[in-house]
Amino acid sequence: MRAEETKDFSLFVTSFYLKLAGIWIAANPTEERRRRNAFTFAFIFMVLGLVIHLRDVYFSSANSFEDTMLALCNLFTGGLVTAKVTALYLHKKQFKELLVYLENNFWHTKYDTNEKTFLNQCKAQCIFFICSFNFFAQGTALCFLIEPCMAYFGNNDFARKLLFNLHADIFVQPYIFEITFLVQICILFYYGIGYLCVDNFVCVVNLHIATQFRILQYRIVNVHAGNNVEKHTVTSRPIPGYYADNCYATFKDCIKQHQALIAYCQKVEQLFTFIVLGQILVFSILMCLDGYLMFLEEASTAKRVTFTFHLTGCTCQLLMFTYSCDCVLRQSLEIAESAYSTEWPALRTNRSGKNMESDLQLVMVRSRVPCCLTAGGFFTVSLETYTRVISTAVSYFTLLRQY
Question: For residue 393, which phi and psi values (nearest 5 degrees)?
Fold first, then answer.
């Protein structure tokens, strides 16, 4: 992806995080070596973090219920991030195909003035969602650092604490605490990268696919444009036959674009369907745990702020990719309405016009089956999914508070 050439801030941010996670297209052997090293470092620290969280869950279960909830929240977050980054790396070939097609057919294509307006609106949406999500995700990571850093740089050595509890006495050993503290900062750093990179890319891809469907709708409705044909109504005088031939030729290009978009959506579905399933299943649990930890009476102000950021970030993240999936679904359905809105009655002057009429019917029938992203094939992801997850999280939270 030539993010620098697109002059799009959302693409630049997305590519930056994907490069840090080692999930990117290498242009030469040097970049390939850097990419492998970046993923190796990210994977090692993420797995190390999972080991720490599993150990924390094991020892916390014997101490207190609140500590167990905190350990489970960290474990679910780390497990989700590690699973997403690993799954995308294992399917790097499919990811490369998506990225190359996206670059060649969406970002570096000639558009007219109206189509550029659609693209600018898409870029504005991408920037809004990515900036909002990144703010709360990075704010959560910074909040995790504030309290341990204040304790570390304080004068009281006994008040020092780690980011994640190890349940081991390492404070008496020289430099062991400092090394462990630095390692946990690296774990938190790569958690933040993995938490952002995949969801940013899914949001950008979905919103650009939805924009391509909007552009296709515009082209179908204005299929007469460029053929020196004015828009006609059914009662108008029939137009010459060669105009119908030109319109039909333009419409066949629209059909090819529609078929290409459908095929591309299927590839996106194959790559991200199980990643989305994991997120949907984990989000309701994470939001429930965040709410519980945020309203604990024993929780410090730093902890309340941390889990407030985390809860808001999860909500923003869920809204970001459910809204982008909903845009793809709605815009693909509206292709049928755009096909019916063409001036097909005025073009029935020869064989091309009649063929165009029959092809329009096929396009309308195919558009009734929307392009969408599913969660493992179990259900379609849309804004309705967002409300269901929020409702489930509130139900879990209520039960947990009663317990």
Answer: -65, -40
Q: Are 198 and 87 in contact (CB under 8 A)?
A: no
Look at residues 15, 7, 221, 261 and name the one whose alpha carbon lies nearest to residue 120: 7
Distances from the Cα of 394 to the Cα of 2, 111, 280, 305, 322, angstroms = 42, 45, 15, 20, 18
Are 198 and 91 in contact, with CB atoms under 8 Å apart? Answer: no
Confidence (pLDDT) at 174: 63
pLDDT for the residue 363: 83
380: β partners = 374
- Reading the block at residue 371, the tokens are 């392009």
Cα–Cα distance measured from residue 113 to residue 98, given in angstroms and rounded to the nearest whole number:
26
**Could you tell me what percent of the chain has a pLDDT over 90?**
8
The CA-based dihedral angle spanning residues 311, 312, 315, 320, taken in that order and rounded to the nearest 10 degrees: -140
Side-chain half-sphere CA neighbours of 351 within 13 A: 0
**Closest listed residue to residue 383, CA positions, set 322, 314, 327:** 322
pLDDT interval class at 2 (50, 70, 90)? very low
Q: Name the burial class of residue 28, with classes exposed (0-12), middle (13-18) and buried (19+) by CB atoms within 10 angstroms of its CB.
A: exposed
Task: Tell me the pLDDT tens digit for each residue of 218-277.
Answer: 888 887 765 544 544 444 455 555 667 777 788 888 888 889 999 999 999 998 988 888
Q: In this predicted structure, what is the pLDDT of residue 234?
A: 41
Helix axes 65-90, 29-60, angle to 10 degrees: 160
Alpha-carbon span 342 to 364, nearest angstrom: 12
